[in-house]
Design a protein that fits this description.
Radius of gyration: 19 Å
Distance between the termini: 33 Å
Oligomer: single chain
Shape: globular
Number of strands: 9
Helix content: 25-40%
Structural class: alpha/beta
Length: 323
């Protein structure tokens, strides 16, 4: 698979979001299935895997997802790029005595669960108003100097936050929600990242399955834990309103002998050279299909026509920017 850069970190141009193996999309797969699915993705050319300390079903305890990812990649660790995330607030700082100690405490636990000595990309999962972003950036810089992380990132942030953090310790990547139906980051965040050599990592790039064309107004999701129950574009009324976007993707999919989800990923790969989407799935076959979006080439004319058509269509429902 072709490669892209997140700051100074080289990754496959499509990564894998691993959350669904632990929660968020109904019944989770077995441990063995999950490990095999992640390893299959690596064998198919994916080198970039996204997890977080918080991804876990309630009974399994914190770090469930990190353990699965670590086990799946342990034999190829030197060839895989692992991103994980932490939450931190003032209570962590009080417990550990400083922002640096608190961040390192979380990181040490993640390193243990992942079975590795270094995290390639360490994100602040969400901004906490009780801890200054400049202090966290400083702590990340120390961890980079110590060789415990290779780079760091931010998630669900605006340009003001990125600018403050980047001025202290250069940011490798920003992970915000982004897809054909969630385009807020196009206004300021992605251009800022392009100008400052920061990678942009879209989560939910297929809009929780909407852009796959496999969800209809009759689709029933598995459980209260399934995030698709509250994704605005997936309410019964909004799914129907968003069908013209799905139909547009189907038109291009037929033309390119591809899947609709692959077209939606190929669109963002064509649009921005610093974008590395991380579609998430708990299905082995769907993961491979998403990775193969890297093989779908949109010509300049196809992209312009698709972009023009997309811009003419109304999006029903907006998940929005949250911290």
């Amino acid at each position: 698979m072709k490669k892209r850069m997140l700051g100074t970190i080289e990754v496959s141009e499509v990564g894998i979001g691993c959350m669904a193996f632990s929660h968020g999309y109904g019944q989770i797969p077995s441990h063995d299935y999950s490990v095999t699915a992640i390893r299959n993705a690596f064998d198919h050319g994916c080198t970039f895997f996204d997890t977080a300390e918080i991804y876990s079903p309630g009974l399994a305890g914190i770090g469930h997802n990190e353990r699965i990812v670590g086990e799946a990649l342990k034999d190829v660790r030197d060839q895989a790029v692992i991103a994980t995330k932490l939450f931190i607030d003032r209570s962590d700082v009080r417990r550990d005595g400083s922002v640096y100690n608190a961040v390192k405490h979380h990181l040490t636990d993640s390193l243990s669960r992942l079975g590795t000595d270094t995290v390639d990309l360490y994100y602040l999962h969400r901004i906490s108003g009780s801890v200054r972003i400049e202090e966290i950036a400083g702590a990340m810089g120390q961890l980079i100097e110590e060789g415990l992380i290779r780079g760091w990132g931010l998630s669900q942030v605006d340009v003001d936050v990125i600018r403050k953090a980047h001025s202290v310790t250069p940011v490798s990547a920003v992970q915000n929600i982004y897809s054909m139906v969630e385009r807020d980051s196009e206004k300021k965040v992605i251009p800022f990242c392009l100008e400052n050599n920061i990678g942009f990592v879209p989560f939910s790039p297929i809009a929780s399955g909407l852009l796959s064309g496999k969800i209809t107004a009759q689709t029933k999701f598995e459980s209260y834990d399934d995030v698709r129950n509250w994704v605005p574009q997936l309410s019964k009324r909004n799914i129907q309103g968003n069908m013209p976007i799905v139909d547009l993707l189907r038109e291009y999919a037929d033309m390119k002998n591809a899947a609709p989800a692959q077209i939606s990923l190929a669109w963002m790969l064509k649009k921005y050279p610093n974008v590395v989407p991380i579609p998430g799935s708990k299905n082995k076959e769907r993961m491979i299909e998403n990775l193969d979006a890297s093989k779908v080439e949109l010509s300049d004319e196809e992209f312009r026509t698709l972009e023009t058509s997309l811009n003419s269509l109304k999006v029903y429902g907006h998940r929005g920017f949250t911290r």
